[in-house]
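[Meeting: bench + compute handoff]

Bench side (C.D.) handed over the final construct sequence. Compute side (W.E.) agreed to return the predicted structure before the next meeting so the bench team could plan truncations. Sequence as handed over:
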Amino acid sequence: MTMTPESDERLRFEHRTLPQRVRFAPGDAAAALAEEIAALGASRVMAIAAKGGAETARRVAGGLPVAHWHHETAMHVPLPVAERARAAAREHRADALVCVGGGSTTGLAKAVALTTGLPIVAVPTTYAGSEATDVWGLTENGRKTTGADDRVLPRAVVYDASLTLTLPADLSAASGLNALAHCVDAMWGPRADPIDRALAGEGIRALGIGLPRVVVDPAGLPGREHALYGAYLAAVAFASAGSGLHHKVCHVLGGMFDLPHAQTHAVVLPHVLAFNAPAAPDAEARIATAFGADGAIAGLDRLRARLRAPTALRDLGMPEDGIAAAVPAVLAAVPANNPRPVTADDLTALLRAAWEGTEPR
């Protein structure tokens, strides 16, 4: 469905809003988190944070009744890492999960909640957006599997832009482009509807304002607050619309080659947008308007240039022979309602251009 509310056709769609409390609490994450844990009635919290984020996590969650601090996290949530976290939750009789960090940290909390049903309160420190979705992902033997389940949706999210100040400008840019990819996929995902497109358009606008400010002034909060706001909208839109072609490509590449998550999204996005946009004029126009540009591709190119975004998968560690290896896995996952048909030759050309860092075609 590509119609807009202004068209002459009748509006007919079904939209699902996920049940979650969201709190923007600049400089006040610890107090807001304590209130959320108290509302759950939790008394044995398992706090999850990467080793590099342990100091921040203890500053934010140190006043909680923490039964266990868990610092083993990894990109793409390898199954053995998830199993050890699940065992720790059982051993320490956790009754709630708190995750402080980026997508890998939130993803691990979701993996624990998936099998235990424990409630999650998330405190994001990047723009990954996983905290606002019911999507989980696990990687085993180089293959990343994803799904959706009500149990993994955090009950509450606490956003505090001051916690993102330690995220370097280049990683902030890549993480923000990952969020922007959620907006783009939400324009034509399997369940995309007018509400998703409205949220995604505002998300693009906010990210387009915030991310360049973060790069120019990494210590400033206004840019990071815009970016967090945009990332949240992006994730909500994506959770409703479902995973489109861009995310199918990135999930395969990330799981198969253990590529850095945010940077992979940043590299692949312009190639998927260039492939799909000509076949989705309404979505293309919405994206262009959100960027304040003459076209969606021109708007994204302008933003990527300002952010000095990564351009080539080979720079991220993907082997050249991985192009042929990835094509059948991506082809099998392409959504049936992608704006245009996708062939093996199409994917080979797309991945080749992304691997080399050449202009999208």
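W.E. noted at the follow-up: The radius of gyration is 19 Å. C.D. will use this when planning the next construct.
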